[in-house]
Specification:
The chain is built from 5 helices and no strands.
Length: about 120
């Protein structure tokens, strides 16, 4: 339940700040949205390290929402930021999604080796 609540709060805030910042013209919300997406994109570079994936592997594999819902939210985020002209941010966010996917696959392989 805590993971679901955290997921809804984080993604809800990102979606709300994107909406009010990019489509309603609120500069502060735009700054928060852009900063949040850059922070998420850059911090996902930690997933390139196998030691990090080994340490948090079980947490990466736990899902709180159906994967299709998560992909729809991520697709909406990517399309919104690219539509508004943030091409670099969109590219880095796509790179973040690729890193998360590969980290989940590596964590699955590690779990299979342990069993």
């Amino acid at each position: 339940m805590n993971r679901l609540l955290r997921y809804l709060i984080i993604n809800g805030l990102i979606v709300i700040t994107i909406y009010y910042g990019m489509y309603k013209g609120n500069g502060g919300a735009l700054n928060i949205a852009v900063f949040s997406l850059w922070f998420i994109s850059i911090s996902s570079l930690l997933l390139l390290n196998n030691t990090v994936v080994e340490q948090i592997g079980d947490k990466i594999l736990q899902t709180t929402v159906p994967p299709i819902f998560d992909r729809i939210v991520d697709l909406g985020i990517v399309l919104s930021i690219i539509y508004k002209g943030y091409f670099w941010l969109g590219g880095f966010y796509i790179f973040h999604l690729i890193l998360v996917k590969s980290a989940r696959e590596r964590a699955e392989k590690l779990m299979k080796k342990e069993n």
